[in-house]
């Protein structure tokens, strides 16, 4: 049940469609009510966008997630989402997955490193957008640990944003995509061209994917900003 504290902010897509998400004040109140005030992830949010292995930036609405929502809204037909199974990896606010749910995806799984993010931000945002929780699943943990949770489950659409910021994560991300993607499924990855100071980049990730020889990868969208942002599309090699 949502309270008055959960009064939302909104992301207005280029088409005019709105997606709602809880403001930081509401998230903080919900964290305290849920007993997460001493969680290491919560402490990390006061000092950094992310702390590797502790907090992966889930309480922030990242630019890549906004790009991904706008791309889905402008370049993917609603019928390509309807009745499809969708997985959002590193979901944080969960806005791309929520967009898919609003376009009648069959069901959506939201995965984030931190349980506190899922409980106090993602789930709240799902409710703020009037998405039926019965059509959603929430899975917390590192991608390696989550593989067992997704065992036997294949997804038609896999979405993820701002998750290639470190080359150290490439193998884990590639593996969970490879294990969960349906034979004719698609993956959309939103990212900055380069992540200065942390080592990841779109060119490095594309090279990595090509070396694995399991997935096709192509650049399908580029921003017109000083530091370019990209969206990549991955499909299985036939």
From TrEMBL:
Organism superkingdom: Eukaryota
Top EC class, one word: transferase
A GO BP annotation: methylation
Gene3D superfamilies: Vaccinia Virus protein VP39
Compartment list: Cytoplasm; Nucleus
Keywords: Cytoplasm, Methyltransferase, Nucleus, S-adenosyl-L-methionine, Transferase
EC number: 2.1.1.85
GO cellular component assignments: cytoplasm; nucleus
GO molecular function, one term: protein-L-histidine N-tele-methyltransferase activity
Pfam families linked to this entry: Methyltransf_16
InterPro entries assigned to the protein according to its UniProt record, in alphabetical order: Methyltransf_16, SAM-dependent_MTases_sf
UniProt similarity note: Belongs to the methyltransferase superfamily. METTL18 family.
Protein name as annotated: protein-histidine N-methyltransferase
Organism: Plectus sambesii
